Amino acid sequence: MMRLHFVATAVPEAQSALASLRAQYDDAGPDKAEIIIALGGDGFMLQTLHAFLGQEKPIYGMNLGSVGFLMNEYSEDQLQERLGHAERAQIHPLRMRATSAVTCVDGLAFNEVSLLRQTRQATKLRILVDGKIRIKELICDGALVATPVGSTAYNLSAHGPILPIDSALLALTPISAFRPRRWRGALLPHHSTVRFEVLEAGKRPVSAVADGLEVRNITSVDVAEDRSIGMVMLFDAGRNLDERILTEQFQD
After folding, report:
1. From 26, 42, 226, 236, the catalytic residue
2. Where is pLDDT greater, at 13 or 239?
3. What is residue 125's predicted lDDT score, i.e. its pLDDT?
4. Which CATH superfamily is domain 94-225 in?
């Protein structure tokens, strides 16, 4: 029997499920557990990934949230058997370094790093890839860099491409681009480094967000994948992350 530790978001439905599962299965605690069971939605899965960074414990999510793309179907039955047949997906986060006039903040993002305007005025960004200027001035609401896992989240809403989990690519996607109007983004090798420089930062303030971490009034942001960090997510047999991403491309 695998040693399990259960965590849940604060909503009543998830807390009720947490109590029920702990009554049926022993909770080994966070230190002794071999697998972490996360009860909630995709946002809570991201919180759990960050909470257990560096502990080499696979995380199996069960959906008690809204979308649940990163979660399995909630069921209390035969949990040990499901875990025994679960398929593994290893994911790597993006590392963000956001610089403002007064500070420099590092953050990790398993979904995406996004830049967003803070006021009614559009932002102006210069975009460099591996040190080379690719766009001198992008007038937009913002821009983002997404991992394959995050490509079906905010990136998809911004009309970015869906990336297979093993594609070794990143998506660079504008958010409501005004000029150049026809630019729809780019696919980058996963080892690329992206730098955003905020033009007219005092007049057109911009915030940077790495999953749940926000840094306001930035002047520049550097983004690159951190392959030194790997987390394992578990999915029910036949419903692994590759299959979910493929299925998403054929949805209405």
Report:
1. 42
2. 13
3. 98
4. Probable inorganic polyphosphate/atp-NAD kinase; domain 2 (2.60.200.30)
